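Quick one, probably user error.
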């Protein structure tokens, strides 16, 4: 695959062919189905200070965290709306010790044994990942952010490293999680060369899930004045990832939906097959402000789910009540 050509060409025929081939490959593996995951943003407290992130340690945002009961309530609402995967995402918040988090995972699995639990809580130790897996967590999302160590250092403070991030991804895989990696498109310092490394990593590690979306500047961060990433380039990268790793579960991310009114539909037309409507309580959504103007900030869970179903039906995609596991 000529990655540089596909990223830079202005030939609409070449781009169209790329998109159509990606859809053909997706349909052959998963059919014309889009899997829904309910996103529950459990905390915006974070000990890290990633330069791009709106809930970084130094951000002056109002902080919140959800209790076990609040999280279970989100799951109950989601279950009634047909969700069979719950994704608990948050900043790196030490309040959620292994004991606390295992208790939450066990409670969700006990009440919803037919659902998958996905965690996205940043870097933790192998022992912690092991205990959470034992408690019932099925999947873990931890974007690698960039596969280039120098670029990684440009995006993160000195105490963070690509090496540790990659160690976590390998630990998660060893422990039997379905693992999600991914990166932002158009983050400051990203080049064709760093993107080639991202795609090489994906082709080699073959994460079960890959989340990519445009970088969007977040107020109050060192990158607040930087340019946002490109929707068009994100779509081309989605299609390339589908071709390099046909079985991947590939979300049409909210960041794409935020940048373009038809962003998620266009992602599906580029080979994506997952959507993650928000199940977080209405009053905390605006506080999980990882970037500016995040989608459906004030709406209710039922509204975002219904909106997604309508959008997917309109482009001829089925949204099954299904965990949507990785197909080997
Ligand atoms: N603390 C967790 C969850 C982070 S938020 C973790 O470390 O994995 C989930 C993802 O949002 C991040 O991995 C990052 O790729 C993305 N993100 C953060 N800030 C962003 C921004 N300004 N624009 C677009 N995406 C962003």
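Nope, works fine. Designed sequence:
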């Amino acid at each position: 695959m000529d990655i540089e050509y596909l990223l830079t060409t202005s030939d609409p025929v070449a781009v169209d062919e790329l998109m159509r081939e990606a859809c053909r490959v997706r349909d052959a593996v998963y059919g014309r189905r889009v899997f829904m995951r309910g996103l529950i943003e459990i905390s915006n407290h974070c000990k890290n200070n990633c330069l791009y992130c709106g809930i970084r340690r130094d951000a002056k945002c109002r902080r919140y965290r959800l209790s076990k009961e609040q999280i279970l309530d989100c799951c109950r609402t989601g279950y009634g709306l047909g969700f069979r995967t719950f994704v608990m995402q948050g900043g790196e918040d030490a309040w959620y010790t292994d004991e606390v988090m295992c208790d939450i995972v066990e409670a969700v699995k006990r009440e919803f044994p037919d659902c998958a639990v996905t965690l996205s809580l940043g870097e933790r130790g192998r022992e912690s990942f092991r205990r959470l897996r034992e408690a019932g967590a099925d999947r873990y999302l931890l974007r690698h952010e960039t596969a280039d160590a120098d670029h990684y250092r440009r995006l993160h403070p000195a105490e963070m490293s690509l090496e540790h991030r990659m160690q976590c991804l390998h630990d998660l895989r060893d422990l039997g999680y379905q693992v999600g990696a991914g990166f932002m498109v158009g983050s400051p310092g990203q080049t064709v060369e760093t993107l080639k490394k991202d795609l090489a990593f994906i082709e080699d590690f073959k994460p079960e899930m890959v989340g990519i979306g445009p970088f969007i500047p977040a107020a109050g961060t060192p990158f607040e004045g930087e340019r946002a990433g490109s929707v068009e380039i994100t779509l081309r990268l989605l299609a390339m990832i589908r071709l390099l790793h046909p079985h991947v579960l590939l979300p049409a991310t909210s960041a794409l939906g935020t940048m373009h009114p038809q962003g998620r539909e266009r992602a599906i037309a580029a080979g994506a097959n997952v959507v993650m409507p928000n199940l977080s309580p209405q009053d905390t959504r605006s506080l999980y402000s990882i970037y500016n103007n995040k989608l459906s900030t004030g709406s209710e869970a039922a509204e975002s789910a219904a909106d997604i179903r309508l959008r997917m039906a309109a482009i001829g995609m089925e949204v099954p009540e299904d965990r949507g596991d990785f197909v080997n």
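The beta strands are 35-36, 38-43, 85-90, 116-120, 139-141, 178-185, 209-214, 274-275.
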